[in-house]
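Session log. Operator J.P. requested a structure for one protein chain; no other inputs attached. Running the standard single-chain path with token output.
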Amino acid sequence: MAKRKVERRARKILGEDPVALVWCSIRKAIPTPPKDVHRAAGKGRLKKRHHWLFYVGAVLGFFIIVPWFLLDTLGKKIDWLLSSKPARGRQVRRTTDADTRVPTPPRTPRTPDRDPAEEVFDGDWSLAAGQLLLRWYSQSPNPRRLVLLTQDRICVAASPRRRLSPTKADDFQIVTELGRHEARIEAEAGQPRGFATFRIHFADNSWLELGQLATPEDADRFLSTASR
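Structure written below.
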């Protein structure tokens, strides 16, 4: 369950006790919007910012792992050249059409083209869900959001930190507030833990799918409450 500091912070910024809450994030990378749409929205970030240790690891990998891999590959190539000898007494066989015929690969059913926005949002950047995605990382560098439900509101909160603990965060602020006439939550109770998702369905018929629900108890309560 969310620790007391999370619940206390949620109560403070809402002005009331939340009916349910859960930390979540976008399940996949944000699709690349058209350049003119991105420019009109302020050209905000579309990817999360990595911790400084990530860049340290990338530098170490480039200067240590890559040279080691190249030397290992070169050594194997040299060993192969030294060990290979011209074949002696090899018999020449006449080739036939059957020998040179390239086998036909088995046919595989064609998979239909998939919308790159599938399972993220409805695909229309001009509607509410798309506009929210365009502001996602300008509101916070961390991909996690705390979705809070009250009797008449759906609130989305974010922390200014790049890294946070879902059970200890106590500095999040509301970044999006929606009345029940503006959006609704679409969820199904009893989903497998670790794979559960839900959608924010906006009044303009756009939708945004969220997953990676933190703290299983909160997730179960949130899905159960939202599916009623």
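Operator note: DSSP finds seven helices and seven strands in the chain.
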